[in-house]
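Here is one chain, start to finish.
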Amino acid sequence: MRLSFPTTPSIFPMTNKDIEIVIGNFTWEVNSRQLTLGKNDGSNPESKSTVLTPKQYQLLKCLYDAYPETVQNDQIIESVWGSKHTSPESLPQLIIRTRQAIGDVDKTILVNEPGVGYSLVFKPKPVQETLVRDELESCTEVEAKAEPEHQRSNIAWLLVMVLLSCATIYNLWVAGESLYNRADFIELHHLQPYPDMEQSENGDIKLKIDNHDCLYSKDQLLLQC
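Its structure:
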């Protein structure tokens, strides 16, 4: 007997090998037999996991692949047990054990349609939440790596600002001193030389100051009148 499921297209991307869905309080990666209690994002190091038996996994995978349709009982038996002979109680017992494993106390996850079969109720794991979390973790790592370099850059800029401030203060001081001595410089620049002045062979200078003969000795830096 060849197994045939309804051809109604699923609203979820069933071909994604790493797709995760939320079943009750568990997160389930459909390619794995492991169910993780709570958010499967590593935020809770004490999160508990439940491992499905092979037949429990085959049951959930069969219903997942057929979502949102109801799978008939004989189709479930063919998918889980194949051509092996099964008792009438095999499927109900498997449903009970699977409900216990996934915490389906209210029978709202493995939903029974009397006389027909079962369907699986689940929610897709929010992709946007995962992307945002990964982006934040990536940004945090980049910031942590860039922090020492950023600190070095700040120190370098601080040193540059200190040097520029010192240079500015020095230039202002020189400019102020120049303004202060400006009058003396102008006066010296416009001074007229003595009219009666002559230089001797040994370098001394003879000059007349107020009708007095004076001698300036260059070697001794001495003026005698």
